[in-house]
Amino acid sequence: MMSAENAIQVKAGRETYTVSRFRGLKAQLIMRLSAKVGRAYPKLATKVAEFEQSYIAENMLRLSRPEAELRFGVEAAEITDEAWQSADGELALKQMPSPMERLAHIWPELLEAAEEPLFDLIAVVSLSNEDLAKADDADGVEGTVEERRRLLLHDAEFEQLIELALAGYEVARGQFGPLVQRLTPLLGMLGMTMGAPEPTESSTSPESEAPTESSPDSSDSETRQPSSTDSQPPTDGLDEKPSTTSPGPPSDSSQGS
Predict the structure, then answer these.
(1) Given 5, 118, 128, 131, which residue has the most CB atoms within 10 angstroms?
(2) Angstrom distance (rounded) from CA 113 to CA 107
(3) What is residue 93's three-state secondary structure?
(4) In this predicted model, what pLDDT tens digit does every residue of 234-246 receive, in sequence order?
(5) Torsion-angle region of residue 143: left (phi > 0), alpha (psi -120 to 50) or beta?
(6) With contact defined as beta carbons under 8 Å apart, do 33 and 120 qualify?
(7) Lowest mean pLDDT among 52-56, 113-117, 147-151
(8) pTM of the prediction?
(9) Please, which pLDDT band fits residue 111 given cuts at 50, 70 and 90?
């Protein structure tokens, strides 16, 4: 994939396609097809979340105290005896599925729900504004998109199709990103005038957004290897009252979950 000013060139099969800024017709088609693909998202997101929960439950890594100290060094060594006792001598580490494992889990549903609009979208991205305008003048946009889709599926390698999709995303982001930022205040104002509820004091107060203390077994944390620059693990220290909480994986207090 080669980029030039306001355009990206992608080789797919025997052809090289130039993806440039979208004019009105091309933007309209892309928005329509993107909406069709997006309709499958809520169902797929739920399926991914369920898969992650079952994966965590089935692949929990439990380390004994010597294993934890070997893996995490001084950070694990500073966890108090009382904390180890309350956790039955085990340090539980959550294992999260990889992006490929998540994709493999939802792939059948993704193809079933969005295969045709997804490949139509890639075909539209590869078509120039001029080609689409000529097809529209001849009332043949649908046939033109179908012909390009067949050509790409027969001629291009799969990763080249992904490159075309990514090129379309990059061009759209560069073209419409600044516009969306400028429109956001206007859209917010229109929402207020059309009856959207105004923010209440409780919903915007600092108290309502204050983070709560989470346990080491929180489901949205991922396993990581501590480095020498990490902060100390959640422990009460050697000179303070021992903690009664169960030990969790050493974490960096400055890093988000």
Answers:
(1) 118
(2) 10
(3) strand
(4) 444 333 343 434 4
(5) alpha
(6) yes
(7) 113-117
(8) 0.49
(9) confident
Q: How many Å is the maximal CA-CA distance in the chain?
A: 82
Measured between alpha carbons, how far is residue 225 from residues 8, 76, 219, 228 in Å?
Answer: 38, 11, 17, 10
Tally of CA atoms within 13 A in the half-sphere of 217 that contains its CB? 13
Q: In the chain, helix, strand, coil percent, each to 5? A: 55, 10, 35
Question: How many Cβ atoms sit within 10 Å of the Cβ of residue 232?
Answer: 14
d(CA 76, CA 250): 7
Domain boundaries, the chain: 1-51+99-172, 60-94
Report the alpha-carbon distance of residue 149 to residue 155 in Å, rounded. Answer: 10
How many other CB atoms are found less than 10 A from the CB of residue 89?
Answer: 13
pLDDT at 108: 81
8 Å CB contact between 83 and 243? yes
Strand partners, 115: none
Helix axes 158-193, 99-126, angle to 10 degrees: 90
What's the confidence (pLDDT) of residue 3?
Answer: 54
Measured distance CA(124)–CA(137) in Å, rounded: 16
Residue given tokens 């169960």 in the structure block: 246
